[in-house]
Design a protein that fits this description.
Layout: E1 2-6, E2 12-17, H1 18-27, E3 31-36, E4 43-47, H2 49-66, E5 72-77, H3 83-98, E6 102-108, H4 117-130, E7 135-144, E8 147-154
Parallel strand pairs: 1-4, 5-6
Antiparallel strand pairs: 1-2, 3-4, 6-8, 7-8
């Protein structure tokens, strides 16, 4: 069987029998690593495999360091929540959105408040409107039993 061999400097050596390619790598004190097994003929590269694994691990660690994890932060309301309290909670939601986290707005109805779901929906939409410059509505207000929820996500560019 033959393989296409790439040298340690990245230059093409050519198509060689496997035994000859392995011997070439061993003479250089390196390893013969299969890069693309599906190609015809398969592509192999002469390299220091230990160094290659180390650099890949280092690159992966660096990539993990720079990724951001988006959390879902929850803020709870009631239909009777006072305007001032709503303003404070809205400020907190804006802070979550500025930190690039999602915000889940939860509104809990108690007793006969459930008869006036429009009051709860209006409250959630008012909060969403006041955060419109920072967020986009991911999930419209949805009612499940005595709880109404809505999810806001941070805008991409801002």
């Amino acid at each position: 069987m033959e393989v296409r061999v790439i040298g340690e400097d990245g230059g093409m050596i050519g198509i060689l029998p496997v035994r000859q390619a392995v011997a070439l790598a061993q003479n250089a004190g390196l390893d013969l690593v299969e890069i693309n097994p599906k190609a015809m003929p398969p592509v192999c590269k002469v390299m220091d495999f230990g160094k290659f694994k180390y650099e890949k691990k280092k690159k992966d660690r660096e990539a993990r360091k720079h990724q951001t994890v988006v959390e879902l932060k929850e803020v709870k309301f009631r239909p009777t929540t006072d305007d001032h309290d709503v303003e404070i909670k809205t400020r907190k939601i804006r802070q979550f959105l500025e930190e690039k986290n999602k915000a889940k707005l939860t509104l809990r109805f108690r007793g006969r408040e459930i008869a006036h779901k429009e009051i709860g929906r209006d409250l959630l939409m008012k909060v969403a409107q006041s955060c419109a410059d920072l967020s986009v509505i991911t999930q419209e207000p949805r009612s499940e039993g005595k709880i109404m929820t809505m999810i806001l996500s941070p805008k991409e560019g801002g």
